[in-house]
Write a structure and sequence with these properties.
The protein is an alpha+beta fold. The protein folds into two domains: 157 residues, Beta Barrel (Cathepsin D, subunit A, domain 1); 54 residues. The protein contains three helices and 14 strands. A hairpin with a 6-residue loop joins strand 1 and strand 2. The chain is elongated, with a radius of gyration of 23 Å.
Length: 213
């Protein structure tokens, strides 16, 4: 995925492929995209296997709404809400919630504060805030991240292309199932609304008939 650079002067958008983070001051929009140096891996959250991406091109750490909902994680108010230009069907989304994620990758265990955002490419995204806080270093040749914690060196390696493909299939399947469930819920809401309107109409007609001489 690539992002868009917004020219404040010309008001035009153009695709870019570099690792950049642009804040559109006029509308307070934070632009995000994944860069080529991302590491796709897996982690354990509450003993559940979750998909995770480490991407120095991301301006924030992100936990997906799906992850938070399915694991029943408690969220807190974001002290500085903002709008995020997300490169999917969501468009611009309002970010106003935090969640503390306790993750485990191999023997590496950590707690990371993440923004809660609709996201379907992965469950968890660790961006520059995580990289800078943990002083994680990226090996461009091996495409691995390494960091030191409690006097021990940890290496976070990527999945194989086959594993990445399998994960994407599962994520897509889960997304489609969620969309189907959401459509059913909306359909039921519309049906209930129409039923209530019909009942109200019947009651109104009955009242008018009774009031007529």
């Amino acid at each position: 995925m690539y992002g868009l650079y917004i020219d404040d002067v010309k008001g035009t958008c153009s695709p870019i492929t570099d690792m950049m983070c642009v804040k559109y001051k006029k509308k307070n929009l934070l632009l995000f995209w994944a860069c080529k140096s991302r590491v796709v891996t897996r982690c354990l959250i509450n003993d559940k296997v979750c998909r995770m991406i480490i991407d120095s091109g991301s301006c924030t750490n992100v936990a997906s709404v799906t992850l938070v909902r399915k694991l029943g994680l408690n969220t807190i108010n974001h002290e500085r809400p903002y709008q995020l230009q997300w490169l999917n069907d969501c468009g611009v989304v309002r970010v106003n919630r935090h969640v503390m994620i306790s993750l485990l990758v191999g023997k590496y265990k950590d707690d990371v504060l993440c923004d809660v955002v609709p996201m379907y490419a992965t469950h968890l995204l660790l961006g520059r805030p995580w990289q800078f806080d943990k002083k994680a270093k990226h090996d461009g040749f091996k495409n691995m991240y390494s960091l030191e914690k409690d006097g021990r060196i940890y290496t976070l390696a990527p999945l194989s292309p086959k594993q990445v493909y399998e994960d994407q299939i599962q994520l897509k399947k889960g997304y489609e199932e969620e969309q189907h469930v959401s459509a059913k819920v909306e359909e039921q809401k519309d049906s209930d609304k129409m039923e209530k309107q019909a009942e109200q109409h019947g009651e109104d007609v009955s009242k008018r008939e009774k009031s007529e001489p």
